[in-house]
Amino acid sequence: MSAVGHEIRGEHDNHDAHDHHHHKDTFITKYIFSIDHKMIAKQYLITGIIMGIIGIAMSLLFRMQLAWPEESFTIFKVLLGDDFAPNGVMRNDIYLALVTIHGTIMVFFVLTAGLSGTFSNLLIPLQIGARDMASGFMNMISYWLFFLSSVIMILSLFVEAGPASAGWTIYPPLSALPQAIGGSGAGMTLWLVSMAIFIASSLMGSLNYVVTVINLRTKGMSMTRLPLTIWAFFITAVIGILSFPVLLSAALLLIFDRSFGTSFFLSDIFIAGEVLHYQGGSPVLFEHLFWFLGHPEVYIVLLPALGITSEIIATNARKPIFGYRAMIASILAIAFLSTIVWGHHMFISGMNPFLGSVFTFTTLLIAIPSAVKAFNYITTLWRGNLQFNPAMLFSIGLVSTFITGGLTGIILGDSTLDINVHDTYFVVAHFHLVMGISALYGLFAGVYHWFPRMFGRMMNKNLGYIHFWVTAICAYGVFFPMHFIGMAGLPRRYYTNTAFPLFDDLQDVNVIITIFALVGGAFQLVFLWNFFYSIFRGKKASMNPWKSNTLEWTAPVEHMHGNWPGEIPEVYRWPYDYSKPGHDEDFVPQNIPMKDGEKELHH
């Protein structure tokens, strides 16, 4: 296998060197129809940032509605128009639509694409020592499908009856009956089409990542010399290949129910006294199909962020990552367990209590590999020579939110405890901390760390510090109080709670949460300015600004297809030789040969 791989790579090298002397890249081949993995990574990142702005803006709009229910706001009138916000007062169905599209955009279009799409593309070839992805063409197609699905999702906001509004989980019958609510019409159809295209994009990307990692590693790059980032991206891609098709099947069956009169998910339904002809289907079947992807999706978003964190913490603590093999084992354990815990989202769906106890058991088991990761980060930081740059701060922030968000998961994973807080703000607090905020921190950390590798310039450090501290304080300011209003019983997805006098006392908390959200949202503009300004005007970066060991810092910064101008570097050691005795520098890159008598630490 490897012999064939090397032969192919040899041909590929010659072909590349031969090819690229002749034709000049035009604007279109360089920036639009690019098959260069570095350019595709930038396309993913910038598309993800744009989708993120839209997703965060939506959350700020519905937070304002929750804090000051049924007040008139000019901004509602401007952004939502007279149809959706008559006289500047948000309509209740539009509130649901905003929550739905916000969830969809953040989970799929920002976090999945922003982390896997950007960093798997950028780092897999560079860190394993490959010229490019296994298939550059397929890589380009996967980005274009992602872009198309983003456009369709945004277009669904402009259909007459409003966008999909059945929640980002789109449970039937709300999502299956076009006459159920306004957003169940054309908006819902566009949502399903967009998601089907998105899944096709993800599958093409994931297959490409897996094949590249298995087949295109440079000489000496054994699986146990891979950086933990690559392990995380690799296993994430495998989870995606196994679980995304299940969501695709759910979406297709839902399209059949909506448009072709089948009843996979519908049974015995009355609307306004009229008996509908559906029989024999079950909405619970949809829940099973949805959550079979929906739970691994949490780790599809989280594992790349944790991989990025491993790399950044080791680099900036100037010491080897603690427990390299335990970290790999924990990634594998999380991947396996994540596929057998989906039922914990369905404890109150009428599930057999015995089955509930099985899902409780598997859910609590996943705490073990997660704890291994948390302890390994803490022990890597312990007595390290810490460099507190923005990337490092966001990585440490991730460890913090991963632990605080994970602790509430133990409560929600227990079927008897979950019944009390299911579908309250407690759940919102839990998954936003553990998946939303942690994954976003991983995304920010990765951008600050690999920005010089992408654009050859440095981002402004002081703006990075401001961005981190305000974001960190506001994130906890938003999601920490939600645990308490959740325990007090406040249900999620309600447009207003004024109809329930028992929740009147909680209204002040909602105002505080919204103020934190508005401040935190506004300060993301600091990041945006820093990012786009630095691309053009940032300080020129040196070749290896963080004094890091991995191969991506051995390739020249200027944009070239094929990554290395001459030979691909060979690998002689694992990626975490920091502060190694017997060396002059406190880092030893992977392409430096071993000295006599020197051992690899992780064996």
Question: Can you tell me about this structure?
Answer:
The protein is built from 17 helices and four strands. Helices cover 63% and strands 1% of the residues. Strands 1-2 form a two-stranded antiparallel ribbon. It has a two-stranded antiparallel sheet with strand order 3-4. The chain has helices at 2-19, 27-32, 37-67, 74-84, 92-128, 136-155, 186-215, 228-259, 283-317, 324-338, 353-365, 367-381, 390-412, 415-421, 425-455, 461-487, 507-537; strands at 270-271, 274-275, 457-458, 539-540. It is mostly helical and 603 residues long. It is globular and about 85 Å long. Residues 1-22 have low confidence and may be disordered.
Key features of this structure:
603 residues, mainly alpha, disordered N terminus, transmembrane, electron transport, membrane, transmembrane helix, Cyt_c_oxase-like_su1_dom
Topology readout:
Elements: H1 2-19, H2 27-32, H3 37-67, H4 74-84, H5 92-128, H6 136-155, H7 186-215, H8 228-259, E1 270-271, E2 274-275, H9 283-317, H10 324-338, H11 353-365, H12 367-381, H13 390-412, H14 415-421, H15 425-455, E3 457-458, H16 461-487, H17 507-537, E4 539-540
Antiparallel strand pairs: 1-2, 3-4
Helix pairs in contact: 3-5, 3-6, 3-17, 5-6, 5-7, 5-8, 5-9, 5-15, 6-7, 7-8, 8-9, 8-10, 9-10, 9-12, 9-13, 9-15, 10-12, 12-13, 13-15, 13-16, 15-16, 16-17
